[in-house]
């Protein structure tokens, strides 16, 4: 799945000539070995060099992103892009590879079951990414919205969540007023009761 996302990312990057080379997640194949005690295995192309870790997450859940080289900056941009593309539901937490060839991709989701993924993460990881990600030159080329700007609409949303209650409080008076104006009790009081009519006749 991440490979397909990376293809879309690369297609958008190619539109901008200043972006330069793009990233590629190397394919991984599932093979069946009936004579082996573990019949299924995955294989991928040999990168023929030592893999560098561009993005990792330590056991405590802290994101560690390298941004020194051009590849590392583009990996950081890919993190930002996929987070924005999935409306904040998917976050890449691990990337390593040789130059622009990526492998061993780790992802977490905001909620379990998103796009069929079973591994979810705590909200703190996503909040940490929003706080610590630094937009770079390539984020600007792709027109990505700064993450700190994305945080600001959350405050109006929280205020907006109270609006139904306020609406109920503000609007609760009007139905009551209408009920009072057209209540059966008022009409009963307005009409003369049978007892009063009898006394008048007597």
Shape: globular
Please summarize the sheet with the most strands: 5 strands, mixed
Q: CATH superfamily, called what?
A: MHCK/EF2 kinase
Major beta sheet, strand line-up: 1-7-6-4-5
Count of structural domains: 1
CATH class: Alpha Beta
Number of strands: 7
String of helices and strands: HEEEEEHEEHHHHHH
Number of helices: 8
Runs in which pLDDT lies below 50 for 5 or more consecutive residues are 154-170, 172-180
**Between the first and last Cα atoms, what is the distance in angstroms?**
93 Å
CATH-assigned fold name: Protein kinase-like fold
- Structural class, please? alpha+beta
β-strand amount: 15-25%
The average pLDDT is 78
Helix content: 40-55%
CATH architecture: Alpha-Beta Barrel
Cα-based radius of gyration, to the nearest Å = 31 Å
What can you see in these coordinates?
The chain is an alpha+beta fold. It has one domain: MHCK/EF2 kinase (Protein kinase-like fold). Helices cover 46% and strands 19% of the residues. It is built from eight helices and seven strands. The strands form two sheets. It has a five-stranded mixed β-sheet with strand order 1-7-6-4-5, with helices on one face. Strand 4 and strand 5 form a beta hairpin. About 13% of the residues have low confidence. It comes from Tetraodon nigroviridis. InterPro entries: a-kinase_dom (IPR004166), Kinase-like_dom_sf (IPR011009). It holds the Pfam family Alpha_kinase. One of its GO terms (molecular function) is ATP binding. This is Alpha-type protein kinase domain-containing protein.
């Amino acid at each position: 799945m991440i490979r397909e996302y990376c293809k879309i990312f690369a297609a958008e990057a190619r539109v901008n000539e200043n972006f330069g080379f793009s990233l590629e997640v190397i394919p991984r194949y599932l093979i069946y070995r009936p004579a082996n005690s573990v019949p299924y295995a995955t294989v991928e192309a040999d990168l023929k060099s030592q893999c560098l870790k561009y993005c990792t997450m330590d056991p405590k859940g802290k994101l560690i992103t390298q941004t020194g080289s051009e590849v590392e900056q583009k990996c950081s941009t890919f993190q930002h892009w996929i987070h924005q593309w999935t409306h904040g539901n998917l976050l890449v937490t691990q990337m390593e590879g040789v130059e622009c060839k990526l492998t061993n991709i780790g992802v977490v989701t905001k909620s379990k079951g998103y796009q069929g993924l079973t591994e979810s993460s705590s909200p703190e990881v996503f909040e940490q990414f929003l706080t610590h990600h630094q937009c770079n030159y390539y984020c600007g080329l792709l027109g990505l919205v700064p993450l700190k700007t994305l945080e600001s609409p959350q405050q109006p949303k929280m205020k907006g969540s109270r609006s139904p209650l306020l609406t109920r409080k503000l609007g609760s008076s009007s139905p009551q007023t209408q009920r009072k104006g057209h209540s059966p009790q008022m009409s009963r009081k307005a009409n003369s009761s049978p007892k009063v009519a009898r006394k008048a006749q007597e």
